Automatic annotation (TrEMBL):
This is LysM peptidoglycan-binding domain-containing protein. It comes from the Bacteria. Residues 68-121 form the LysM domain.
Length: 126
């Protein structure tokens, strides 16, 4: 009887391992929306056009930069938003981006931005 129970347990463990490796146990997120590059460029240009005015701020280290007010959507980070606004990689370091973001948004840290709120994001001159 012990051998039969051991065999059944062994087969069950093999099945669980097989299922985990082939199917997986994590569900695919249904909220992930994939955009084509053209659609994303349209959304970014619409976002830029919707800004009423773009003001210029000065930074002692990196010259002039402007900012755009953007409403944060789910899954976005300060880095991802600024990279979208720039249309590519950042011309400054991430630590400089954090400093500029905190200067534009006093009492706010990049790690604690909230979905649905509007923040000022720096746009660097190329």
């Amino acid at each position: 009887m012990k051998k039969l129970l051991g065999l059944l347990l062994f087969l069950f463990v093999l099945y669980v391992i097989y299922y985990d490796l082939s199917e997986g146990v994590l569900s695919t997120p249904a909220s992930v929306v994939l955009f084509k590059k053209d659609e994303m460029d349209e959304k970014i240009s619409d976002e830029k056009e919707s800004v009423n005015e773009e003001e210029t701020a000065t930074d002692a280290n990196n010259g002039d930069y402007s900012y755009i007010e953007v409403e944060v959507k789910a899954g976005e980070t300060v880095l991802s938003i600024v990279e979208k606004l720039q249309g590519g990689p950042l011309p400054v370091s991430i630590s400089q981006l954090i400093t500029d973001f905190q200067q534009l948004n006093p009492n706010t840290t990049p790690e604690l931005i909230q979905v649905g709120k509007t923040y000022k994001f720096p746009v660097y001159n190329k």
